[in-house]
Design a protein that fits this description.
The complex is a heterodimer of chains A (115) and B (114). With 115 residues, chain A is an all-beta fold. Chain A is 0% helix and 50% strand. In chain A, strands 2, 4, 5, 6, 9, 10 and 11 form a seven-stranded mixed sheet that branches. Chain A has a four-stranded antiparallel sheet with strand order 1-3-8-7, with no helix packed on it. In chain A, strand 5 and strand 6 form a beta hairpin. Chains A and B meet through strand 5 and strand 10 of A and strand 4, strand 5, strand 9 and strand 10 of B.
Chain lengths: 115, 114
């Protein structure tokens, strides 16, 4: 069964540094998402992406965050100047229909640790 | 108040017993989804129930939805040790801002004792 893959599985970064989290969504999916889960807390929506542009974003997704689909397979989340509170699990997801009652398929996540 | 809250927060049962988890939410929804998360892993989609559906089955899973009470339940029958995981409900809703996204609850941690 096709999977969403995320790399790296664990990223350790100094505060203030830029970090790029990478995702390869399921190949025939058109909608892509990033979520984060701070340790012990809920999974929180960050951003959704369709047709090479952001379709929705949450209050968390401020100017420090950006997303990109640099080629036909990768979907990246960039944090420009990391803060301690950015430490979390970041999950990528994809679906073949936005809100058309289609499930989202999640990767195993990247654990981001900011020192 | 939070959208999508599960109860109980934790549940411990013996293998073979049934496990019931509940989810309550606040706003109108397009659909409600249940996911499972094993420790250190991503979320695995289990079942989606549309706002105009009342009950749905998938294998040992049974989901109900009561939109008048804004609640849903997930029943796992004849549980197995491999069912040990956290279970989350997620509501697909259009917010006041017009934004449409999945909103996850805090989850129920299920422990199935062999």
């Amino acid at each position: 069964e096709p999977e969403v893959t995320q790399t790296p599985s664990h990223q350790v970064t100094q505060m203030g540094q830029e970090v790029i989290l990478r995702c390869v969504p399921i190949s025939n999916h058109l909608y892509f998402y990033w979520y984060r889960q701070i340790l012990g807390q809920k999974v929180e929506f960050l951003v959704s992406f369709y047709n090479n542009e952001i379709s929705e974003k949450s209050e968390i997704f401020d100017d420090q965050f950006s997303v990109e689909r640099p080629d036909g397979s990768n979907f990246t989340l960039k944090i420009r100047s990391t803060k301690l509170e950015d430490s979390a699990m970041y999950f990528c997801a994809s679906s073949d229909g936005r809100g058309s009652n289609q499930p989202q398929h999640f990767g195993d996540g990247t654990r981001l640790s900011i020192l | 108040s939070q959208q999508g809250e599960e109860d109980p927060q934790a549940l411990s049962i013996q293998e073979g017993e049934n496990a019931t988890m509940n989810c309550s939410y606040k706003t109108s929804i397009n659909n409600l989804q249940w996911y499972r998360q094993n420790s250190g892993r991503g979320l695995v989609h289990l079942i989606l129930i549309r706002s105009n559906e009342r009950e749905k089955h998938s294998g040992r899973l049974r989901v109900t939805l009561d939109t008048s009470k804004k609640s849903s339940s997930l029943l796992i029958t004849a549980s197995r040790a491999a069912d040990t995981a956290s279970y989350f409900c997620a509501t697909d809703a259009t917010m006041d801002t017009g934004r449409r996204a999945l909103t996850f609850g805090s989850g129920t941690r299920l422990q199935v004792q062999p």
